[in-house]
């Protein structure tokens, strides 16, 4: 989607106003009646399940009570936002969310690029394919399975990792019940599950590099390091930028299921993020409007981040996503 | 590709092979450990005494068998809904002359950037009467905006002449979709079907959010009760069903294995498709 498509959309909308075009348009609409019928279920889906909730965020300016419904609940302005911003919870949630999101950005994201580059250096196709087949598997496991396996391996009551630590003569570490280990575990699980999968898109871009470029550079006396720096990396630069933008868009709702499954009373102070808080306060405690306000805050910050990232990308000469 | 044969380059190659070997080992070892242990009398990487006791047990519990049934049902039925909704909409939007097409496309793309969030969506699901029914696990995610746009681009790449000539011959629009467009996009449809199915099978949080009765839980929710909550961890105790008693380690592992088998069964097919790059060809809409 580019800005030009936005402009086109506007001109298309104006068309029906031209009296000259009116008759052909109604004819055209009738001709396309089946296409519109096909469009209907999907359109309804987007309106009901995506756009109604967007309009429903207005409840964060209300004192929403389910028995009164949306229309009869009283309006309270920005009261919930004021409450949220003045609470220490706000700083805790911001800190935890930012911490995990930054870990993702500086550990996980570069790891996928490095893994892709290393795979790209492998000359034996057979070996490369085997590695790829194996490292993609964890991506398709559910988070419940990944967290479940972590529990089985790491528990202090007979988990293999702690048995090994005890056997080596050290004290057992309560990985799952410790706030110090929460973040390392989260990032480790992310790496295990998705680092391999993350290489796909880079490998696809790398496969498109013209071999003659390498040939020419080698004749000019470039070594492997130089080939990587001057040819390989520039080819995937735009892919890196696009993925970075998309990642920034999800900056704040990273790994919700994962975190939800990993959080417990012992690590809540470092593990609670915006989404888990919305669930706890909203669904479990029934403070609907307040939690909707927290959710809205998160969504808006996310949207701002996407536009910001896209702007930066364009400023540095990349295409951006819109 | 690289004919660099300096010592440094060779050392790098060996280190690289070794490193990637270890990475692939790390990718499968944890799961292998769980599989092997589930068939042994004690936890181990090298099978000790072979036993299927854990499996025998879980298949006698009505809870597990029932939730497996729920998962199979929502996966099969849900994938059908996903494919029908997505392909119908993608087919319409693939017609460039369609009035209002741009607006609808923008609308779809916008949902990828912004959403109402958990609480308003929860109330919409409630208002539509889907709460605590299996529909709540299928309908609220009936179309992935991302897949829709890729499929639309895929449909667009089918030559218009094919469709035009069928129209000349008096073919109905539905006939064109079913007899020409879908058969020509079978690889893409298969790929999206598989990806949708994996998503449905693995979905967990929607069930926590929308399903209150334990007898409608998909297997992922049960898995969490059995494996994560019974570990003495402090979870939401209110969610534990009365009939999930304390299970032994072997049983936990067997539950993990059974709930992952379907994924491993379709993995070769999945791999064939994403290796072809079906899903990547048009990441840029």
Automatic annotation (TrEMBL), chain A:
Every ABC transmembrane type-1 domain range: 94-309
Membrane topology: Multi-pass membrane protein
Compartment annotation: Cell membrane; Membrane
TM spans (from-to): 34-52, 98-119, 140-161, 181-206, 227-246, 288-309
GO cellular component, one term: plasma membrane
First-listed, main subcellular location of the protein, grouped into a coarse class: membrane
Biological processes, Gene Ontology terms: transmembrane transport
The entry's keywords: Membrane, Transmembrane, Transmembrane helix, Transport
UniProt cross-references to InterPro entries, sorted A to Z: MetI-like, MetI-like_sf
Protein family (similarity comment): Belongs to the binding-protein-dependent transport system permease family.
Name of the protein in its database record: Multiple-sugar transport system permease YteP
Species annotation: Paenibacillus abyssi
Source organism phylogeny: Bacteria, Bacillati, Bacillota, Bacilli, Bacillales
Encoding gene, per UniProt annotation: yteP
UniProtKB/TrEMBL annotation, chain B:
Any GO BP: transmembrane transport
This protein's UniProt keywords: Cell membrane, Membrane, Transmembrane, Transmembrane helix, Transport
Residues annotated as domain ABC transmembrane type-1: 68-270
Principal location: membrane
GO cellular component: plasma membrane
Keyword Membrane belongs to the record: yes
Membrane-related topology note: Multi-pass membrane protein
Official protein name in the record: Protein LplC
Organism expressing this protein natively: Paenibacillus abyssi
């Amino acid at each position: 989607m580019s800005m030009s498509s936005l402009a086109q959309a506007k001109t298309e909308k104006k068309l029906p106003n031209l009296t000259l075009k009116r008759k052909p348009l109604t004819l055209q609409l009738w001709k396309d009646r089946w296409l519109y019928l096909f469009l209907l279920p999907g359109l309804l889906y987007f309106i009901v399940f995506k756009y109604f909730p967007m309009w429903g965020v207005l409840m964060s300016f209300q004192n929403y009570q389910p028995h009164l419904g949306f229309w009869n609940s009283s309006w309270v302005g920005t009261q919930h936002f004021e409450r949220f911003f003045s609470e220490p919870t706000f700083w805790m949630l911001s800190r935890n969310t930012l911490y995990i999101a930054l870990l993702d950005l500086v550990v996980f994201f570069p790891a996928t690029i490095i893994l892709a580059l290393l795979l790209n250096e492998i000359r034996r196709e057979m070996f490369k394919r085997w590695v790829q087949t194996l490292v993609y598997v964890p991506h398709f496991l559910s988070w419940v399975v990944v967290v479940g396996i972590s529990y089985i391996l790491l528990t202090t009551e007979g988990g293999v990792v702690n048995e090994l630590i005890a056997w080596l003569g050290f004290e057992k570490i309560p990985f799952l019940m410790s706030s110090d280990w929460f973040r390392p575990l989260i990032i480790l699980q992310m790496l295990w599950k998705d680092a391999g999968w993350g290489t796909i898109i880079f490998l696809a871009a790398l496969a498109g590099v013209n071999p003659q470029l390498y040939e020419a550079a080698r004749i000019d006396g470039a070594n492997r390091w130089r080939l990587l720096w001057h040819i390989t990396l520039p080819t995937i630069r735009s892919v890196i930028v696009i993925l970075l933008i998309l990642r920034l868009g999800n900056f704040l709702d990273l790994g919700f299921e994962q975190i939800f499954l990993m959080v417990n009373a012992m690590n809540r102070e470092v593990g609670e993020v915006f989404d888990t808080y919305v669930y706890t306060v909203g669904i479990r405690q029934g403070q609907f409007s307040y939690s909707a306000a927290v959710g809205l805050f998160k969504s808006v910050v996310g949207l701002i981040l996407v536009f910001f990232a896209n702007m930066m990308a364009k400023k540095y000469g990349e295409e951006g996503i819109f | 590709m690289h004919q660099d044969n300096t010592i440094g380059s060779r050392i790098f190659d060996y280190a690289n092979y070794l490193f990637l070997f270890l990475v692939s080992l790390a990718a499968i070892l944890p799961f292998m450990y769980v599989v092997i242990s589930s068939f042994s009398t004690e936890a181990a990487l090298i099978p000790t005494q072979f036993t299927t006791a854990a499996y025998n047990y879980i298949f006698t519990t009505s809870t597990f068998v029932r939730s497996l049934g729920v998962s199979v049902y929502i996966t099969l039925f849900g994938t059908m809904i996903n494919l029908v909704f997505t392909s119908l909409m993608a087919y319409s939007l693939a017609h460039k002359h369609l009035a209002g097409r741009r607006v609808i496309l923008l609308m779809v793309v916008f949902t990828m950037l912004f959403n109402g969030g958990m609480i308003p969506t929860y109330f919409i699901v409630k208002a539509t009467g889907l709460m605590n029914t299996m529909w709540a696990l299928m309908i609220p995610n009936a179309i992935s905006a991302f897949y829709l746009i890729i499929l639309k681009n895929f449909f667009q790449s089918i030559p218009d002449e094919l469709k035009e000539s069928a129209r000349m011959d008096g073919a109905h629009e539905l006939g064109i979709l079913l007899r020409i467009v879908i058969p020509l996009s079978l690889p893409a449809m298969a790929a999206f079907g598989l990806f949708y199915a994996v998503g449905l099978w693995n979905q967990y949080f929607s069930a926590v959010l929308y399903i209150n009765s334990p007898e409608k839980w998909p297997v992922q929710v049960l898995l969490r009760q059995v494996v994560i909550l019974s570990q003495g961890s402090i979870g939401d105790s209110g969610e534990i069903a009365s009939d999930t008693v304390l299970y032994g380690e072997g049983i936990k592992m067997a539950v993990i294995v059974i709930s992952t088998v379907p994924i491993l069964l379709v993995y070769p097919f999945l791999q064939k498709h994403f290796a072809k790059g079906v899903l990547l060809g048009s990441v840029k809409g």
